[in-house]
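sorry for the late reply, my laptop died twice this morning and i had to redo everyting from scratch. anyway the thing you sent over, i finally got around to it. pasting the sequence first so we're on the same page, its 617 residues, then the predicted structure underneath. double check i copied it right bc i was rushing
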Amino acid sequence: MNTRTQEDFIPEDVIEEVRLRTDIVEVISDYVSLQRKGKNYWGLCPFHSENTPSFTVTPEKQMFYCFGCNLGGNIFSFLMKKENLSFVESIKNLAHRYGVSLPEKELSPREREESRLRRRFEEIHEWAASYFHDLLLSLPEGEPGRFYFAKRGVSLETMKSFRLGYASGSWAGLLGYMQEHGVQPYELAEAGLAIEKETPGKDGRQYYDRFRNRVLFSILDRRNKPIAFGGRVLDDSIPKYLNSPETLFFNKGHHLYGMHRAHQGIREEGFAIMVEGYMDVIALQNAGFPNTVASLGTALTQDQAKLLKRYTQRVVLLYDSDTAGIQAALRGGEILRDAGIRVEVLTLTGAKDPDEFLKSYGVEDFHKALRGVLTYIEFKYRTLVRATPPQNIPDKAELVVKLAPDILKVISPVEREGYERFLSLELGLTLEAVQREIASQEQKKSRKERVEQYYPPKQVNSAKNRDNIIDAIICKDQMGQPLPTVYLGVYRAERTLLRMLLEDISHLPRIKAKLGESFWKVSEHQQIFNYLNQDGGLPAHSDETVQSRLASLFLEELDISQTERLLDDCIKEILSTQAEERVEDLQVRMVALEKSGDMAGAMALLKEIGERLKRGE
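ok and here's the structure:
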């Protein structure tokens, strides 16, 4: 299948025309109540909860930025975040609104066929969803489904918003309905909605409906379009749950139930709640927890973890408290943790699932339970102790060894020591003993494992902290790669240089002559510089962090009467820090030579260090 993105097919000049014609204040005002203050507009951020406006829109630069959550960008990135659109979809949205004609892309025969099949797939699923939904709401055959949902406390409004449905006991109900719309049985089978009989009939191949005697949950994509179904029987039939099979256009490991509504809730709440069942999602979302999702009848996958990470750095797992649920939480927690997500686990008591808990205890008690979540490591510890209580010292040592790989993935020294102290107190061991045991496990790991495996730091509200500003504490970014230490003076110098370049690109040759092109310590700064260095312009679409950094830069005031002095000061600051780092590198090499016994080599480096210091390097 062709994996090229459509961004390749919209010319830059057309994208720029859409951007220039768009009134960013007008568009964002559809979502945020904005008040003008000076040149900018201010309002409450639509991407996180706040009481004091920290969200600003700058019409002059066509950018937005939130000082609270550090999100920012242009009008395309705003719509992408707010409406969960792709870049191309955001362009089409604005082009339609502001009357810009988009060029049609010339498709290859293969692409035309693929596009036709996708449209047919979407068309068939839309008709199927309407058929099942109408049957549930309006027809006599849907009475069992209506009775089931009424018993579960599902309102008519909820049935409509989640596009719930019902499949009767007919073996050809959907087949007959679809034939009236010109859909052939083999097409339904290819879409996963019908099954071909093993033994052909007199007239050739025979088919029957996949879903029968089941309430149906429509799996909706981010555009609110049905792409699959999940069915549940109303009696003791087997299987109890039945989901659409994977097809050319549907992979269950790439989607989450409820995400069509939850993506905004996750951004606003700052975390996601992951549950097991479709009814749990519906119950929690209706109870005021719009950040709830579920996997599609399978164990959590890496792709689903990546999908969650687009919206949050924190996930609370809320699975059943039986053995299967506990094991699913342990496996899912590992996948989320390795994706760079902070994992917490909530266990409910007195109810078999969240839906039952809400009915028995109410929303306030659920809020209380949510405040008592365990970290993944605490949950794993309690699970291991409950399964095999430690009886002696070797048992305790084994428990520490089992948890060591998880603790070793914690980057924060404070957080890691917190877990070590937790084990020390729980097991009655000294902190030093626990730390030595865990350290011994680290030495057994390969260097590659030590680099690649980590536990993500807490999400912070400071853009500086995310860049590892000040001090000599080395952190890692969200992909687990070490970030270089960035001193505050250098950080400020880099930002000032970029701000000057954004104001006047003519400074570029001088900066390159003095510093080169790869001196930037902050990766987003390097990316922005690369864009400016290529053609002096900025991309309409780029990484979210780059867009946010650009927006924050445009908001910085620049005294244009002092540009020459500012430019010299920034260059001197960066050159000075580079010289200090070179001396520090020599000192590290000198110590290594001393330890290896090469005193002559160490003395030679000491002499070089002295000469550099004399020269003021």
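Residues 462-617 form a domain with the DNAb Helicase; Chain A fold (CATH 1.10.860).
thats about all i looked at so far, will dig more tmrw
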